[in-house]
Amino acid sequence: MNIEALTTKFIETRNATERICEPLENEDYSVQPCLDVSPPKWHLAHSTWFFEQFVLKKYKEDYQVFDDDFAYLFNSYYNNAGDRILRPNRGLMTRPTVKEVYAYRKHVTEHVVDLLSKSQSEELLECLEIGVNHEQQHQELLAYDIKYIFGHQPTFPKYGGEFLIQKETHSEDFIAVEEGVYEIGYKDNEFCFDIELGVHKVYIHPFEISNKLITNKEYLEFIEAGGYENFNLWHADGWDFINSNNIKAPLYWHLTYGKWKYYTFNGLEDLNLEEPVMHISYYEAFAFAEWKGMRLPTEFEWEVASSKFNWGKLWEWTASAYQPYPNYTKAEGALGEYNGKFMIGLQVLRGASIATPKNHSRNTYRNFFHPTMRWMFSGLRLAK
What we know:
Blueprint: H1 3-20, H2 40-59, H3 70-74, H4 98-116, H5 122-151, E1 174-177, E2 180-184, E3 200-204, E4 207-210, H6 216-224, H7 236-244, E5 253-256, E6 259-264, E7 267-270, H8 282-291, H9 299-305, E8 315-321, E9 347-351, E10 367-369, E11 378-379
Parallel strand pairs: 8-11
Antiparallel strand pairs: 1-4, 2-3, 5-6, 6-7, 8-9, 9-10
Helix pairs in contact: 1-4, 1-5, 2-4, 2-5
């Protein structure tokens, strides 16, 4: 990407993050309802610290950091970059104020633009492109976290019409994929993350995959058939998880006076049976597939078949554990902590969601979460 295009993309990305936060009031910015949710103020500052830490401090001569405390407050998990506050404590920070965080964003954005007008080394541009993609990932996380914050308030406040999912309009059909040896991994010349690299071949047995996501109607049938009470459908860990947490339905579903409702960004609404079921854990996706006498696709099956169906409404759970591709090597230093150190105990999701930035919607993109996670925009597609 040339310098002009990258500068434009950087500015657009910074503005897009702030647009996501426009519906918020000051009181919304510092809330952390659970361990996995970060306050919106933290996202705004962390994505800014990333540029300050990895771009400005390294490449801009005589750059002075905005505030010495911010590296400690807004580092996430980069041990090579120094100490940081514990993740559960992000919601304890009423200071710095929201106003100060926006001033920090303005300061760093202006300095990065100034740097790009004077320095155009390939190493700098590569680092900046990683930073842009990193902030775009946080835009999606912001959507998840804002929904969790609003969806756990007694009055279920409305956020607005963005990030609303559309109905599944296809009648179910299963697409056959022939057995064979297929190439997996990113092959183009644009940006991708390192975990998509290492193009390699896999042998795929013949299988069929659904042309549609599972809907709320289908998932409700699973609930009413006693799916959450039948231990035979669940992994042992999954059975412990749903019972320990008293889980009986997807996140944001509420049985009110005998009628199912769910929280969307438009507030608490009647359950729309035609929309794809979302906010389910891997354990729930697996149990549903077991109930249907089918299974989840592997990530390789999903990638091979992805040209044959529409995808992009929800991240789709796969049967694949998050592992490195052949010849994967971590980058040195803090940026090497970006993906590689999480390759244990996580499950791969493929596709994209209604909150995914456009250029992240590629069929080689490997998302990954713990099997218990439900607050992201996740759904499932069946295979057999």
